Amino acid sequence: MIALRFGVADVARTRFVISPLDHLMAGSARLGVHHSVGSRSERWWRGARRHVPDRAGRFLDVVNASPVGVPNFMVADLDAVRRQLTDELDALLSVPQQAVEEDVAMFGSGPELPTALARLRDDGTRGLREVSDGAWALFRSCLAPDWPDIRRALETDVAARSRTAARSGIGAMLDSLHPKAVWRDEGVLECTVGALEGSFDLGGRGLELRPNYFLQQGIGLLAGQDRQSLLLHPVGAPAAEPTSRPPAADGLAAVLGPARARVLRAIAGSACSTTELAQRLGVTPPSASAHAAALRAAGLIGTRREGKQVRHTLTDVGHDLLLDNPEPPAAV
Q1: In contact, 301 and 295? CB cutoff 8 Å
Q2: Among 61, 86, 111, 283, which has the minimal tally of Cβ within 10 Å of its Cβ?
Q3: Are 278 and 287 in contact (CB under 8 A)?
Q4: How many domains does the structure of the chain reveal?
Q5: Whether residue 58 sits in one domain with residue 15
């Protein structure tokens, strides 16, 4: 089990991304190699394989080289949420040779290294170009006719999960992704991915959630220190929300702590000075000032000076965080 640890910035920067390249790899992954392949992928491949062009061979060899998965550089790291395959392939072509060698080395060395990955490592820029060209040819010949319908299914899934986040908080949404992804109120998402074990701090970059139409048997995880971590999950209706939610399930308090969650919500009411904030909370001005300083350092509030006083207001990040984590009803 891998524990993904969320900080304040990670909650605010978690987002959904729809990736054509992810689907091209998942759709062409073979059942005898990758255990996460489901019946939906197999049905699609049976209809598509007679249209596979010869140019796609190099791409298919890399995708199915190892049951462990594909090298990390094959998974595009881009800012855009709505991505085009051309953007993802451009990112693939720009991968430095050192990154290719380091990622391939994770699959072994010498005779144990799959031939397709050894070729990719040794061919440098030419190898990446052939893999990219093969991916484009496979998409145009096989996936492009189905992509509009697949994208609509993905966008419907994202919309449903976004509503869950707005109503019940981001923790409830993350908990609904898959039984192998479990949200804990202390701000941790526990992911069961094979035999992997450990704990990983998202480092303020947040988590990229990638719904996948072809993925059915589990979830996929890529956590990196120099990129935004990502979680692949199947498309499906979010789990039913509980009819009642205990006060302890306050997602904002789980990440910020109860005191600073109260401070952020107090400032959300209207801009206020430190003295006014202390009065709203029933604490001393020095205590209110210390909490405000911590929230300002996290980018959740802004402070401006007006004469001899300072005024605290929410930033856009703070506002979005409150929208995703409404205050739970008081216990009766």
Answers
A1: yes
A2: 111
A3: yes
A4: 2
A5: yes
Residue 274 lies in a domain: yes
**Cα–Cα distance for residue pair 46/178, rounded to 1 Å:** 27
pLDDT of residue 39: 75
Give the three-class secondary structure for 103. Answer: helix
Question: Quick check: 120 and 128 in contact, CB under 8 A?
Answer: yes
**Cα gap 150→23, rounded to integer Å:** 9
The answer to whether residues 188 and 298 belong to one domain is: no
Q: Which CATH number do you get for residue 258?
A: 1.10.10.10
158 and 46, same structural domain? yes
- With a CB cutoff of 8 Å and minimum separation 6, the contacts of 46 are none
What strands lie across the sheet with 15-16, from one edge to the other? 15-16, 207-212, 229-234, 220-222
Sign of the CA dihedral running 85, 87, 93, 99? negative
Residue 24 in any domain: the answer is yes
Domain membership of residue 242 (yes or no) is no
> What are the E-state strand segments in the chain?
2-5, 15-16, 181-184, 188-191, 198-201, 207-212, 220-222, 229-234, 301-306, 309-314
User: How many CA within 13 A on the CB side of residue 102?
Assistant: 7
Average pLDDT over residues 97-103: 94
pLDDT of 217 reads 78
The mean pLDDT value for 290-309 works out to: 89
Residues 260, 205: one domain? no
Question: What is the C-alpha radius of gyration for the chain, rounded to an integer number of angstroms?
Answer: 23
Range of the domain at 90: 2-234
Residues 114 and 154 in one domain: yes
Query: What b/e string do you get for 33-69 counting C-beta neighbours within 10 Å, with b at 16 or more?
Result: ebebbbebbeebbeebeeebeebbebbbbbbbbbeeb
The last residue of a domain, from among 234, 260, 281: 234
Dist CA 236 CA 212 (whole Å):
10
Q: What is the pLDDT of residues 9-52, one digit of tens each?
A: 999 899 999 999 999 999 998 865 665 556 788 888 888 988 99
Residue 239 forms part of a structural domain? no
